[in-house]
């Protein structure tokens, strides 16, 4: 597997996803998702609901990503795409999750709904209010781990524990 850069490289039949263990979606994937044909979107949805495993990183691209995946947005109880709220996230819970000694700066994050799914990482925003950072959602027979922050943001992309974070988040998926 590897990164797909052009929607034309994506299958338009669920059979095309045979052998795919995990799909990672990040803010840099938003344009790719938007460029998918209806047949490609349907194949992707069927794969996910049939047992596919997703790691979805949102950050500031939450509306773009989730509007291309309404079947995932529907699982996120209480999420309204027209009133998506971003928050400033205290990264200490992410640092603890990875046992990191390397500090992260304050991160921009989607305010994930307080209900639904299984919380993987819980933390606080900079106003010290509770915030869900990573949540597992069942999608038919499949599973999606939704992360409130952009895992491809410069702050996290350059962070030494990024790969460990992604590995730990996807461990239940694989």
Your description of this structure?
By secondary structure, the chain is α/β, with parallel strands linked by helices. It has seven helices and seven strands. The protein has helices at residues 30-35, 38-49, 62-68, 70-73, 92-97, 154-157, 162-170, and strands at residues 23-25, 53-57, 86-90, 107-110, 118-125, 130-139, 142-147. A hairpin with a 4-residue loop joins strand 5 (118-125) and strand 6 (130-139). The two termini are 14 Å apart.
Distance between the termini: 14 Å
Radius of gyration: 15 Å
Element order: H for helix, E for strand: EHHEHHEHEEEEHH
Strand neighbour order, sheet with most strands: 1-2-7-6-5-3-4
- Biggest β-sheet description: 7 strands, mixed
Overall structural class, as computed from helix and strand content, comes to alpha/beta
Number of strands: 7
The tally of helices reads 7
Arithmetic mean pLDDT = 93
> How much helix is in the residues?
25-40%
General shape: globular
Question: Would you identify the regions where 5 or more consecutive residues have pLDDT less than 50?
Answer: none
Strand content: 15-25%
């Amino acid at each position: 597997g590897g990164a797909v850069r052009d929607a034309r490289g994506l299958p338009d039949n669920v059979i095309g996803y045979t052998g795919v263990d995990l799909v990672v979606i990040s803010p840099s994937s938003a344009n790719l998702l938007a460029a998918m044909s209806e047949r490609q979107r349907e194949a992707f949805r069927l794969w996910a609901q049939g047992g596919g495993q997703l790691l979805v990183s949102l950050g500031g691209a939450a509306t773009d990503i989730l509007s291309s995946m309404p079947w995932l947005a529907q699982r996120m109880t209480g999420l309204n795409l027209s009133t998506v709220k971003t928050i400033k996230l205290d990264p200490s819970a992410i640092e603890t999750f990875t046992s990191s000694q390397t500090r992260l700066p304050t991160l921009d994050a989607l305010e994930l709904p307080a209900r639904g799914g299984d919380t993987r990482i819980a933390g606080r925003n900079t106003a010290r209010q509770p915030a869900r950072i990573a949540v597992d959602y069942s999608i038919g027979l499949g599973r999606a781990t939704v992360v409130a922050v952009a895992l491809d943001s410069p702050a996290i992309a350059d962070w030494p524990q990024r790969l460990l974070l992604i590995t730990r988040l996807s461990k239940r998926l694989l």
